[in-house]
Inverse folding.
């Protein structure tokens, strides 16, 4: 896909990513480095936890979502996020196949910087059952194509 | 530190993490796997980007923040977040020394589940200059000590 500029986007536009499959080893390896809690690193301990079984760190789901988004949403100059909201409606489990559906929800050209705008995108990360495991609504900086 | 229950927390309470130092190799390794964009993986390309130099993926900053929080905020049963808001006021750079300051901002005992409550925590991740590189305000599920 060719790079997308502010002028190429419209509210309601959707982008669907490829899929990525998560296994228990990936979950445990990420968690050992970034979120070393028993429900992310140990199947037996996880059974007795609030998750009732091994679950991926929410930040692992977030990082994998970013990986998929980089490929699915080829914004000119890259995907640069200033922040937003994130939630994990249900855990990501070993064997889950994740796909991201992105939808453009707002486009605001910058008043002070005529070379760019702010675009709000809702990224829903779904498992193989179509259930949302993460919903993130993020602000992106997107360049304009036309320059003086 | 002993595990913290809902009864042990109060609004305004603060927790400070240890520090972690980020180098260029760590930034590039994370980015190759989860956020493969030139400004996160290549110094030369990064100079010409919106960041003006190599910058960590925001999700890397988030993951490192989680790592620090797991040690700094020993909630009973673990740090279980339902979601919240996140922003990256400035980039995380090679050589940055990150520390997280957590502050309890709201405590809401559950009406439907008397064994737990919802706690809102503001996590500010700062570099060695005291500047915020990430601000995350997250909802945590925290168990109560006293059970019927």
């Amino acid at each position: 896909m060719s790079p997308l500029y502010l002028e190429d986007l419209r509210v309601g536009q959707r982008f669907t990513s490829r899929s990525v499959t998560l296994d228990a080893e990936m979950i445990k390896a990420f968690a050992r480095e970034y979120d070393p809690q028993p429900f992310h690193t140990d199947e037996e301990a996880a059974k007795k936890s609030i998750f009732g079984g091994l679950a991926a760190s929410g930040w692992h789901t977030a990082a994998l979502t970013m990986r998929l988004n980089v490929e699915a949403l080829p914004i000119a100059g890259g995907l640069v996020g200033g922040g937003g909201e994130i939630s994990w409606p249900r855990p990501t489990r070993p064997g889950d196949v994740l796909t991201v559906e992105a939808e453009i929800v707002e486009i605001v050209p910058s008043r002070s910087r005529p070379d760019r705008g702010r675009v709000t995108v809702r990224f829903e990360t779904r498992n193989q059952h179509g259930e949302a495991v993460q919903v993130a609504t993020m602000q992106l900086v997107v360049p304009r194509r036309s320059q003086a």
Remarks:
- Chain B has one domain: 6-143.
